[in-house]
Amino acid sequence: MTANDLSPILSLRQIRKVYGSLEVLHGIDLDVRAGEVVALLGENGAGKSTLSKIISGAVQPTSGTMTWFGAPYAPATPRAAMDAGLGMIHQELKLLPQLSIAENVFVGRYLTKAGRVDRQAMEERAHAGLQRLGLDVSPRRLVEGLSTAKQQLIEIAKAMTLNARLLILDEPTAALGGEETQLLFRQIERLKADGVGIIYISHRLEEIRQIADRIVVMRDGAKVQEFDTGDVPVRTIVEAMVGRSLDRMFPAIPAPSDDVMLEVRGLSSPFGTFRNIDFAVKRGEVFGIAGLVGAGRTELVRAITGADPIATGDVVLDGKVITPRSPRDAIRNGVVLVPEDRKLQGLVLEHSITENIGYANFDAVSKTGWMTSKRLNQFADGYIKKFGVKGRGEQNAGELSGGNQQKVVLAKWLARNPKVVVLDEPTRGIDVGARSSIYDTIMELARQGIAVIVVSSDLEEVLGVSNRIMVMAQGKQAGILDRKDANDVSVMELATI
Fold first, then answer.
1. What CATH number has the domain spanning 3-242?
2. How far apart are CA 333 and CA 327, in angstroms?
3. Which pLDDT tens digit goes with each residue over 240-274?
4. CATH of domain 260-495
5. What is the pTM of this model?
6. Cα-Cα-Cα-Cα dihedral of 185, 190, 196, 202, to 10°?
């Protein structure tokens, strides 16, 4: 008997959601059966997250009905959904940094023994879950300071311990490399074999063919197409998502200058996260950095941009040693970083788009030491239009979609006319349409003679946008590949040495 022969464990009928005069979900029907993976796809703003929040009890529908194992289902809170047997892994990390890994895995449901918290049992179970996902780290370690990728694996391990009958995975691999993703897929296969239903949301469309049994595509709050198999060409999925034909995913890459803009000479971290790194980036070159989680990619670019300390080595810009000791040093010299976590490190979510752009450009907006609202608004509005941000200047950054938030981060730094732009996971959690716009921006920077460094866990992405690719493995520089020599196999061979 296949999953399609079984009655749904979860059924949604005519689910609608209205905010004021705006209807964001238009009568959604959805079934999920035991032991199957339903991929829920669509651009940012398509309604996927709202629908997931309704299923998981975080948002109440305006109308429509749900059933869970044939009985009426209407969770008033996420806790009610969890108690019913539904778990959700959120795209935005929700860990508590001052608690240990084990405490985070079992937060709100601590294991007890004889009336006391059983820390040993929690640590053993948390460690076992993390090891299954390829993360060998002490469960007693605080979450604070862990990389985004490691935090994502902890979120996944947390959901795996729920013994849920249905899991919603929202961009679970967005911060993961290929090896970590395959470990997760093996866990998903085990869950399927145990009869767990899974709703899988991802912008990495190639992985959908590996993991999904069915595909549901949403656009503008409506379900527009459903495929009875996961083996659907990416182009077909993309065209269903965007409602138009898509000629190509990646734009043409311009040829760089022969002049070197940035050099990294013998750079090492005081924490041992990277060692003896040497490379150069030319004017107008897009230089990719690839590697598995824990390879030291993010730590390296944070050091280059002054966000993390440097033990030995130099950063040389346009022939001059600048070796930044702080982000301010790097910014003053024309080196800027678009960080991997735009919500935590790139934006002040509770402040407006205009304010966020202004924070990085006070010297340009207030050249005399005084700044007026009119001048700030004019300055920010120009960059909002230039980068196609879909939002008003006075709107809070936290209200924007992931793609538009990333455009704001790009706008605030590119307004400074930098010499070097470092992009760490530039399209993490961003839909296909917004990705295309960001890729176009990267190529425009290169055409202007700016040196661009792109760090990405998405191998297709780093291959698609880079003139050359440096591969890192366990904190070391494993090799640098020219575009003509770089492919999935050559990169992974270096990444796993």
1. 3.40.50.300
2. 10
3. 887 765 555 788 999 999 999 999 999 999 999 99
4. 3.40.50.300
5. 0.62
6. 0
